[in-house]
Amino acid sequence: MKVTLFCIVIVLLTGCCYSTRAPQGAVLNPGESIVIASAAGTITCSYVAPLQRKYLWSNVSRIISLNARDIKWYGALGIYSSGTSSSSFLKAGDVTRIVAQESMLNFDSLSDFLKWEKESWVELVYNDEGYAGGWSISPNREQLNVDIWRIFINGKAPRHLPGAKNSEIRVSRN
Q1: Rounded mean pLDDT for each run of 10 residues along the chain, 174 residues in total
Q2: For residue 99, how many C-alpha atoms fall within 13 Å in the half-sphere facing its CB?
Q3: What is the C-alpha separation between 126 and 168, in angstroms, rounded?
Q4: What local confidence, expressed as pLDDT, does residue 90 receive?
């Protein structure tokens, strides 16, 4: 009886601690991957679990755990890794940590989006469906930086965005 009760308590506790629900504002869904091609090269980010992503670049791949944002950061929720938590791993090429974010952004107008796009810290590529992203390696920090966004204009997914590079950012669904 004690063993059965103990097992029930463990199942209930572990069920409460791990969520299979997608975090609010995350971009990728089960079975999805996004491929970004830029001057830095090509990177693929794949959904593994609600708070896990696999990154593949320069023939190196790593799976990391991300955190769900509880409050908006620059207007978005989503998920992120600051590269300082358990996402640390053995050196992969020139990289010892991954700093990543994935979130949805809603702009009031197309001109607001275009202004944001011009101010991006990274070479940003986006497609007509509103998927956007960029990545780089910071050699001095041994750090891979990855940003992935899903853009909405006035609450709706776009059908066409000026400057879109559909061949440089693609989403695949398995």
Answers
A1: 42 42 88 95 97 94 92 87 64 82 96 93 92 94 94 96 97 94
A2: 11
A3: 8
A4: 59
Residues 164, 162, 115, 75, CA torsion sign:
negative
**Interior/surface letters 79-111, b for 16+ CB within 10 angstroms, e for the rest:** bbbebeeebeeeebeebebbbbbbbbbebeeee
Decide: 151 and 107 in contact? Cβ < 8 Å.
yes
Q: What is the pTM of this model?
A: 0.83
Residue 15 in tokens = 């069920």
Say which residue the tokens 């089960």 belong to. Answer: 30
Domain edges within the chain: 21-173
